[in-house]
Amino acid sequence: MRICEEDACVTNQSPAVYPALLFDADGTLLDFDRSEYRALTRVFQRHGYPFNDEIFQKYRAINSRAWARYEKGEIEKPIIHSTRFQQLFDEAGITGDGAGFNREYLEALSEEPWTMPGALELCQKLSKHRTLAIASNGVSFVQRRRLKDSGLLPCFSKLFISEEIGVMKPHAGFFDHVLAAFPQLPPQKLLIIGDSPTSDIAGGSRAGLGTCWVNFRHKPLPPGIPQPLYEVDSLEALGPLLLEAPAAARK
């Protein structure tokens, strides 16, 4: 666990004093990598299409580029859903309906509610002391079903899903919507906790929220991203960080 001490990110409040905690879903609480792989495997097998590591990595590269463009506002989400598998099929020499395959994939993904280690226990503990909310760029029915089936849903009083709001992280409109749902709290009293430097840390920082980067893989912070106020490499570290007394939190 690291609580940054550089001049650029000095804060005069402990993470223990945030009354509202805004959690990203995929890659933070939900194990998207596992869910994605299992869902893809099932749908490829259903159609009798070849599926191996080369095809999987090719899909991930296509999908990653598409979502990066989506975050920048260059394309709409329906474009991702209608083209990513068709592009994969074209590159892999597979004859199939990419848009139809995507619909089957999303349904299969919604049936894979895997969580990151310690996620459920953490949220159950935190929900007794803080207001918890979800902030997700995912597909609405997929996220709602996975949150429910994972057991996480009862821990959260609010769900902010970009598909329902009409704007995504990291854009200001998403965080404006979040802040409007907490009229009694100034932005600096909300802490966003997530694994994405771009959508969670940069977006939250620009909106004036406190930021906590869940950096499971010890990646360097990308250039141009504001320094997060807090950084952890496990969910286990978040419990003490968020619940300990303010005086102890700075030791």
How would you characterize this protein structure?
It is a single chain. This protein is 46% helix and 12% strand. It is built from 11 helices and 7 strands. Strands 1-7-6-5-2-3-4 form a 7-stranded mixed sheet. Mean pLDDT is 91; it is low at 3-12 and 245-251. It folds into 2 domains: 2-30 and 115-249, 3-Layer(aba) Sandwich (Rossmann fold), CATH 3.40.50.1000; 32-110, DNA polymerase, domain 1, CATH 1.10.150. The protein is α/β, with parallel strands linked by helices and 251 residues long. Pfam families: Hydrolase. It comes from Hydrogeniiclostridium mannosilyticum. This is Noncanonical pyrimidine nucleotidase, YjjG family.
Shape: globular
The total count of strands amounts to 7
Radius of gyration: 19 Å
Query: What value does the average pLDDT take?
Result: 91
Total discrete domains: 2
**Helical run tally:** 11
Question: Biggest sheet: strands, sense, closure?
Answer: 7 strands, mixed
Beta strand %: 5-15%
Helix content: 40-55%
List keywords for this structure.
2 domains, DNA polymerase, domain 1, disordered N terminus, alpha/beta, 251 residues, disordered C terminus, 7-stranded mixed beta sheet, Rossmann fold, 46% helix, single chain
Structure in a nutshell:
It contains 11 helices and 7 strands. The chain is an alpha/beta fold. It is globular, with a radius of gyration of 19 Å.
List the helices and strands and how they pair.
Layout: E1 2-3, E2 20-23, H1 32-47, H2 53-71, H3 77-92, H4 98-110, H5 119-126, E3 131-136, H6 140-150, E4 158-161, H7 162-165, H8 172-180, E5 190-194, H9 197-206, E6 210-214, E7 230-232, H10 238-243, H11 246-249
Parallel strand pairs: 2-3, 2-5, 3-4, 5-6, 6-7
Antiparallel strand pairs: 1-7
Helix pairs in contact: 1-4, 2-3, 3-4, 4-6
